[in-house]
Amino acid sequence: MKHAVLVAAMFLGMGAAVAAPAPVEDIASGSSDERIARLERILKAKQQGEFEMQRRVDALQREVLDLRGVTEQQNYQLNQVLQRQRQLYEDIANLSTKPTPAANSTVATDPVSVAASSSTLGETASYEAAVNLVLKDRKYDDAIPAFRNFIKQYPQSSYAANANYWLGQLLFNKGENAEAKTAFSTVVSQFADSNKRGDSLVKLGMIAEKDNDIPGAKALYQKVLKDYPNSASARLAQQQLSAING
Q1: Which CATH class is domain 81-245?
Q2: Percent of the chain at pLDDT above 70?
């Protein structure tokens, strides 16, 4: 990309030279004062041309940096969407491959009813119902007890890390930071291999900021940068650190 900027700058410089060529003068004739004056005019014209070229290069570099920032932000948002979709597809695939008990061929959709079931089908359906309350129905207050019931019923589920993260996010959005902190801390301490651990560390850092624990927030963001470099979580952590440092 730097090479592209330099090439563009060269063309811009050539354009500037064509548009405003340096004056051509015979510096050999005339008195010494006249020759010096002509040299000074030529030097001044050259310096102005170089200044104009540098100004245009700087403008191009700023545009490239702005475009890079927009691209990174869009990539982060796209990764978040794809991650949510991938999780939902996995949930649906798992649900469709599980055998339905003969005594009950209809799966309950109410989160509380589903959480009461101890079967594998009940586990998947319970999690899916809680997620759908967020993504499809936008019933955020109803989703909180649904995720709590799921976590209580299936604490060792393969969906437990995600369920705790969802619960923490919903509570965080409501400003219930103490309970949100508990949910995010559960992901960090109990699910080291979860793809939600980095995001949970970032959210814990944000909660620390809200609690005016700036050193604690910085430590959490730096941990994300160390443990999950080049990830979407790391980019968000870096943004938070930059905002703190001003």
Answers
A1: mainly alpha
A2: 63
